[in-house]
Specification:
heterotetramer, A mainly alpha (331), C alpha/beta (520), D alpha/beta (291), C: 520 residues, alpha/beta, Rossmann fold, six-stranded mixed sheet, 19 helices, globular, D: 291 residues, six-stranded parallel sheet, four-stranded parallel sheet, binds adenosine-5'-triphosphate, binds magnesium ion, Ribose transport system ATP-binding protein (chain C), ATP-binding (chain C), ATP hydrolysis activity (chain C), transport (chain C), cell membrane (chain C)
Chain lengths: 331, 331, 520, 291
Amino acid sequence: MSDISVSGRRLTPQMKAGLGIFARYATILGLFAMILVFSLLSPKAFPTLGNFTNVLNQASLAMIIAGGLTLAVIVGELDLSIGFAASLHGIIVTGLIVHDKLPIPVAVVIVVALGALIGLVNGFIVTKIKVNSVIATLGVGTILTGFAFAYSSGVPIVAGVPEAFLQLSLGRWLFGIPNNIVVMVVVLGALWTLVERTSLGQEIQAVGGNAAAARLAGIDVDRIKILGFVVSGMCAALTGILLASRLGSGTASAADSYLLTAFAAVFLGSATLRDGEFHVLGTFVGALIIAFGFNGLNIFGAPTFSQYVFQGAILIVAVGLSSLGRSLAES
Amino acid sequence: MSDISVSGRRLTPQMKAGLGIFARYATILGLFAMILVFSLLSPKAFPTLGNFTNVLNQASLAMIIAGGLTLAVIVGELDLSIGFAASLHGIIVTGLIVHDKLPIPVAVVIVVALGALIGLVNGFIVTKIKVNSVIATLGVGTILTGFAFAYSSGVPIVAGVPEAFLQLSLGRWLFGIPNNIVVMVVVLGALWTLVERTSLGQEIQAVGGNAAAARLAGIDVDRIKILGFVVSGMCAALTGILLASRLGSGTASAADSYLLTAFAAVFLGSATLRDGEFHVLGTFVGALIIAFGFNGLNIFGAPTFSQYVFQGAILIVAVGLSSLGRSLAES
Amino acid sequence: MTDTTIISPMTGTPTASPFIVARHIAKAFGGAQALKDVSIDLLPGEVHGLVGANGAGKSTMIRILAGLNHPDAGSIEIDGQTTNVANAQAAAAMGMSFIHQELAFVPGMTVLQNIMLGVPKPSRLGLTDWSAIAREVAPIAKRVGITAPLNASVKGLSTAENWLINICRALVRKSRLIVMDEPTASLSASESEKLFTIIRDLSRSGVTVLYVSHRLDEILDLCDRVSVFRDGRSVDEFSRAGLTRQKLVESIVGKGLDETVKPVRAEMSREVVLDVADISRLPRVKSVSFALHRGEVLGIGGLVGAGRTELARLIYGADRPDGGSMTLSGKAFRPKSPSAAVKAGLGLVPEERRAEGLVLSKSVLFNLGLANLDSLVSGKFVPLLSRKRQAHMATETIKALAIKTQGMDQPVGRLSGGNQQKVVIGRWLRREPDVLILDEPTRGVDIGARGEIHKLIRQLAQSGMAVLVISSEPDELPDLCDRVLVMAEGSVVRELSGDKLSRNAIVEASYEVTKQGVPA
Amino acid sequence: QDKPLLGIVSISATEANNVRYIQGATKAAEEMGWQVNVVDAAGNADQANAAIQNFAQLGAGAIIDMVFPFSSIGAGLDAAGSANIPVVTWGGGLGSTVAATNGSGGPMAIPVVETMVKQMDGKGSILALTYRTGEVCRNRETQMDEILAKYPDITVTKNEVRIPGYFEDGAQYANAWLASHPAGNENLAIWGCWDDPAIGAIGSLRAQDRSDVAVYGINGNAQALENIKNGYMTATAWQDSFTEGYNMVKMLEEIKAAGTGWTPKAAEVAAVLVTKDTVEAFIAEHPEAIQ
Ligand SMILES: Nc1ncnc2c1ncn2[C@@H]1O[C@H](COP(=O)(O)OP(=O)(O)OP(=O)(O)O)[C@@H](O)[C@H]1O
Ligand SMILES: Nc1ncnc2c1ncn2[C@@H]1O[C@H](COP(=O)(O)OP(=O)(O)OP(=O)(O)O)[C@@H](O)[C@H]1O
Ligand SMILES: [Mg+2]
Ligand SMILES: [Mg+2]
């Protein structure tokens, strides 16, 4: 179907099969190629266990929120509220701990429940009132920003944040693995199992693949879509909490920019291993590519403008290789 | 199909027909209701010719960029590069005028052509390399931010911006109609004619409605998609130019925030008059709702946090009324 | 799961008390009264036929039973209890399963995942136990005729195989009622035969089957009783004894109909319009050659998966061949896209009208215009569409094809299946391409309209068009075509014309390869 | 290769004052034989933390945090602290383990607000464009509130702008505010907690031909100075961010030499009030301010 295949030689079936396999692994190859290049460019600072742990630690928050978003996009909806929601959650969790003196675990549980509630509201507006998810979640996100202002008057909550709360994200686990990484692995592992290995996961995939068919097959499409939003909302809450812990404060709009990062990760991931489908493992790889790109360019010390150019190019090239391979394989 | 219709009474066909009509006009009714309420709340300041002209003048830039985006979404793609592109265009147009001393019309033409080129690149990456449009345009947008930075080293181009360039957006036309409004009307009028009244427009709509069917009906789908991106890119350029003229400078990231506004307008518009389809007139109404909502709440003097809450609610309610009416009508 | 577990052991007889009784059902969509007054009852263990012209309301009635639409008036009793089928889950819980006219499958999933869509699955520790499921499903899939491996993606499968998946799903659910809305429309003879055997087995073991089809011979062959819908009303109910095709046709159409219009064959021109030489795209199409003449209707028959659709796509530029060449009117022809093929003078009516033929959300007028845009514009400098020309074109086509629509502005997705098919064909009438390829042109088209479409195809040929018709229904080709190529496993195995052209010859040739092992 | 590394994390490498500061810092670093590496965190605090961690990973000699308040770079400070790398802030305040700060910017508001109040004769209406999430802007707002508390005849309407989007927000808030504050009734002024929102508001004023409203900004970026020259802005306070950057880097040597004995301190550089009357002289003295 690609015009590129028009020109000249025809591909043999073997070559096509090869290209098909290449397409599946192109983003992962891209990731490794990028790591290799940065390792050659900054051999002392980049390819160290310390730095890799560091990158994974940094990327964990984005991975958690992107993992949640993955469920929303698998069921065929966009959730634009996650960034704004995570900002609000960060403010509320610090508020509950600092002002209301709640024990940290209680505050965390309340905020995750609030995240689920926001997801429920999103899901209800989308499935029952049938508002397009772009408008619904943008609207809810805007409202949440208002709430964040109302709760904090826009002033970051800083004073009196207990050390124990900071340790939530700064602390380390067995073998010195940072807590953030542990939380991320648990969350993504749970999401992966849910989607790929349970019968609920089958329904989730079916709704996203063809909602009409899923409905005809007797799947409660609305329930599944709401579930997608709830998971997305809960992951946003987790990220908001960990971010507040990492920053040491609850700050309005601190997490807003996760929205674009999460989207980039999720869509990058859809080119990984599968043919343009969203999946949790892909999102993980997508987030890794973004994080290593940022880190490697930083460490190499590229001028600011070229950092942007490379970051943009990495996105396109990583997906482009895979897409091109696939379309040639299918030509 | 809605669960609401299951419960209890059945709607008569007449009621359903009525609801169907209501659904078509709900967003427009919402706009008028909103204007009415604000007029009652702030009878002196809000419902004046001067204020309405100001709102329209202010909204013109968002309308132009959203009008372009409408074409991209009609052909079934997202263009996330528009905000970043408009920022870059603003810098380049001032640069061409101030540093390269080009006549204003020449500079404008060059920058609009550059907008078309960026659209072409987006379109090429999406159709030929087959990269998902979210990744492609996010990547291109990031690269453009890098270019904006490289071109201006991050310093706004200010000194020596000629008054004539400022008059581009500050000037007024016959009967004192601001230039921005004139440009907006011309651009949206042209886009509307293109989409609704030409054979090319039929192809554009067909590609968005069902690309596979359009292809088999003999339409060059790739060409049409590229066209959608090119139009979107040109409108982003126009908005960037007018914004630079309004600010009197070319400033990096000045137009970035248009991205979300344009998306909100386009998706709001899809609930207007038609059944969830994107169209130029709808986008215009969507942008009006956003602009009047912001203006009215401000004039009424609502506190910042409640402004966010109301803005979010306006989005959801305007679309929700229409969607609910439609789903009841079709139940 | 073995065969015996799918089928509940109870053996019912048609005299038992009815399983489902629907009375005076009415349903309107917007202004369109799809059902006016429909009553039907289904007895345990019977095969109940449901027939009627396109748009008569068959699918709507089925969607109401399935809980997808809700009636405006009337009542439904299941096992003597008045019930409201709230949604698809409720229908499944009541023991009903459905094979809807619109295909229900998820493109990104495997065959097995699609079969199990919405079916409760065994699990271990909350995780789905796929290997156990595969063991149970495999024999059923085989029995239905699914040849693809269960873990293959459904993306590369043909329409027919996707239908088989839907049928398989209905069998895997242990249902008391299986509703099939035109299941054979996409199947060829051998799959159909397999399906009939399954239906008879099901019936014997007490499962009720509601069977919708436009193929009346099947209905007569298979059904214990037949209900006829006409214009949203249930007008007749026949039992098998003494029912003839003639009676059925009269009841459907509301008047007599001469079905035996053998098309008049004009003297065929020897002028070759399209010459195809050794076109391949492995593994689906292997070195196919033929010539298509001006004024000729050339049929391509064969079994499902024989490669006919793929051949059409190659000719049309929708896919690219790995080898071979073509000429069109003597000039080398190598379209790089369908749009190039259309410019060169080709037209295609695709197999999948909803997915590949129509912009469902757009109006009839819009869809009819798509291949004719050049002729609909006025104005020299700006190609503005002329509403007058559009309306004229649409009115003419709607009339010519007797498309049942509320008006030319009705969204095409709301037409009944057969009428949607007519819109796809109608698009090309006005454009008058040199070569028109029709892939399963009468799929889902009612008996009256089928005759009309056949007549129309002959007329097009007579006016000088070269027509290529692909059909899986062996009955269709002998009447319609001057010449028929039979394909099997990607190759043309037989050319039939004149006296040798008959239903049986086509069926026989379809199995040629399988017998000989290697294609010619 | 073995030159000490100065890591700079900027909130927005495309904002004029940030750029000036980076230029000053770079100049000083060159003089000292350091190499400079700038990361643009694009307003994203988490990204800023990541960048600081990356610099710590790299074994940087020192790290400058631009504008992110110390309260939002907890993880970064933690990483730098364990690697014994001093972190200084520009406009990020002094706290936690921050070694030094300047550009706090809060006091810069005082001369501007005082000028504004004087020109309004102590009565009238003000539209204040604020940004409370930012430490600097919040301090400026507090300064303004303290001064205005003495003038009961001045009513203030406060609106929060967003980043990004401050131009558009400034313009839209101005539009709405102007609609209920017609010309000729009272003294009117628009105050931006930094120049850019005020510049957005100027666009609205000019589009409506309203020359009765005085506009005040803070920071003194090139565009603000240009607007003062042309009479569209009344006053701004010029922040000498180049010198701030330069001085801060020079101080890094002292900080590193003192090691654990260092006492954190603020080393502010005075701002310059620029008005229509002084703008020509000012530009003559600081030609770099409008480049
Ligand atoms: N969602 C809808 N909106 C509007 N009209 C509809 C809708 N669904 C069906 N109709 C109309 O209802 C009538 C009955 O349609 P239905 O699909 O039940 O016919 P059918 O008997 O199944 O025909 P076919 O044999 O062509 O499949 C048609 O006129 C159709 O246009
Ligand atoms: N590589 C492929 N990937 C995806 N789909 C394919 C591929 N090859 C063929 N198909 C589709 O599979 C379907 C069946 O193709 P084929 O031509 O082999 O069968 P056919 O003889 O037309 O039989 P049928 O009666 O099922 O249409 C067609 O719709 C074709 O477009
Ligand atoms: Mg039907
Ligand atoms: Mg076929």
